Amino acid sequence: MMAITKRKTYRPRRVRSDHPPAFQLTERDMQIVQLIARHRFLNSNHVRRLVGGSAKNVTNRLKALFEHGLLDRPQNQFDTYRMGGGTSPLVYALADKGAQLLADMYEQPDGKRISWTHKNKSAGRPFLRHTLGIADFAVAMQISVAGRDEVNLIDGDELLDNFPAEILARNKPYRLSVPVIHKNLRLDIGLEADYAFSLHLPKVRRKAFFLVEIDRGTMPVARRDLKQSSILRKLLAYQTMWKMKLHQKHFGWGNFRVLFVTESSERVENMITATNAQSLTRQSPLFLFADKHSLYDQDDALGAQWLNAHRKVEHLLPPML
Known about the structure:
This protein has helices at 27-39, 44-51, 55-67, 96-105, 116-122, 125-145, 156-159, 165-168, 231-243, 246-250, 265-276, 292-296; strands at 41-43, 71-72, 91-94, 152-155, 176-182, 185-191, 195-201, 206-214, 257-262, 287-291, 306-307, 313-314. By secondary structure, it is an alpha+beta fold.
């Protein structure tokens, strides 16, 4: 007679256990909570790359932090199922208990007033995917410079250190308004990059600043006018920002370039064509373009090839490095 094996009750990955096993919060756990708080959303692959260790161990720690209410698993990541797409890495966000832990550690009473559980539930799927796209880039850059003496990556709060005081006092210090003239019409365009960072090269005493636009292909490359969002609108605004030297006044930077990360090489080509179709931006040295596959399908994203408006290959670091 065949033995009948009782199947284990399935519990969806989005649901916490009523009785999670006890666990001891470690220094590495705190590092994970801090990283997720900094990036807003990270998936398990991001976390593993940043903290090191085996995928199994990192997965187990993330699960424990979720089960004990320090981290959330945003619901919108479970909204769709792709036939044959396999299982995507789980996405994590800061939960209320995690926020309280960080607020207590750094003596930040305001941190307890935000309901991260509510924010995570209300975050739409496009916002979630876009934020993960930003994390893809930021994590790739952080991994690329790890252990290298010739280059330092500066981002986050550290990059804000040299901003003018009046800019730092703003709620969104990276946001600025740029007066763009297009087709004899002036339009004030609000500009705020998805990610900003600086590469410091101590051997040659050079600092290079970058603003990054993560393009998921949902925005038209060009429209008839600039009243609605488009890549062309961003290109003209950034070029005007450079021409008026607003980067010096607003950020205190002597230089900057704009990096566009796209979904495909075809999208890169369309952006370069749009750049060269306007007299203001034609063959501008300000912009570099790369598709995410060429950027991330290698161990060293910092050594990736970018195309400029001349369709020539450039790198973020000088050749001698």
